[in-house]
């Protein structure tokens, strides 16, 4: 743990915000010193616990429990793979976008997703695993990617629905990850969320245009929302009662909110936006609950989610076949880059 994130207006050396941060840092430094000087594993654990309790960041050079490291590699790698596989359903529409402007926007969005994958692989590498190992784990099925990318994009309106709903769900899920306890992941998420927010708006704008177009365009937009609604709700994962990692992940402040809390937040956000779009959310059970100050809604089919996660979704095979092909066709690029890097190292400075 190192570095101050900010110096706020009420910063000061005593009672101000910065003073409190300094006091927390001093306590953490003392705990770290005890761990190092005495070589005591319990003291290292104390230091780790104190960093988490003080809402500070764990950095790559800090000691961390093995399970924390493994859990982060699992989540960050799964997230990175999702960004890379997530390029496929939209990528297939770049040549079919209805205008040059739409093509350019979609191309930029898909490129952003490649960038997100790369920041996330880089964040995972700080935990001592290489990108090549992570890619191998995706290709041989030991690691997953998000269920959502196993659904097909049938019409241009699907690109709007992905932007509005899928990127919208991604933002709701990922904004809290900007405060995740692992520094490199939290920092990668800040830029990713800024870009996701543009992505969501471009999808919203596509649907807005279609919804106010001809009757056929309006129907195409509604059909896309009908098909993407429940898979988007399922992106948040199984219900809290069945979530295997949530409790530990929240104790370590990797996750800040439970799957169900984020799902609820997403539904509440979408209801108002659907009204502006003039589109209907395909859930007859959707209604405002005055007592809970939130919407009641029909949960997605979690059996379907589990089937899709296990490989039995409409497009799992196609997505993985495409990824394997792209990986083997890219072998010469990786070899050329490695040969060039080796040559650069041989160059003796004059
Ligand atoms: N799909 O204990 P749980 C994007 C798995 S990228 C597949 O609740 P956790 C975007 C889970 O891994 C979208 N698997 O897990 C990109 C676990 O299995 P394992 C990706 C899922 O980790 C391009 C098991 O079910 N976003 O948005 O506490 C274009 C039990 O679940 C899913 C991220 O990766 C699922 N939907 O919570 C546009 C965000 N749900 O690993 C958009 C970061 C659950 O034990 N990740 N599983 O075999 C997270 O926030 C969390 O990992 C999750 C799951 C909320 C996804």
TrEMBL record:
Pfam families per UniProt:
PaaA_PaaC
By its UniProt entry, which PANTHER family does this protein fall under? 1,2-PHENYLACETYL-COA EPOXIDASE, SUBUNIT A, PHENYLACETIC ACID DEGRADATION PROTEIN PAA
In the record, what lineage is assigned to the organism producing the protein? Bacteria, Bacillati, Actinomycetota, Actinomycetes, Micromonosporales
Check the record and name the InterPro entries matching this protein: Aromatic_CoA_ox/epox, Ferritin-like, Ferritin-like_SF, PaaA, PaaA_PaaC
| Organism listed in the record | Asanoa iriomotensis
What NCBIfam families does this protein map onto? PA_CoA_Oxy1
> What SUPFAM superfamilies is this protein classified in?
Ferritin-like
- What name appears for this protein in its UniProt entry? Phenylacetate-CoA oxygenase subunit PaaA
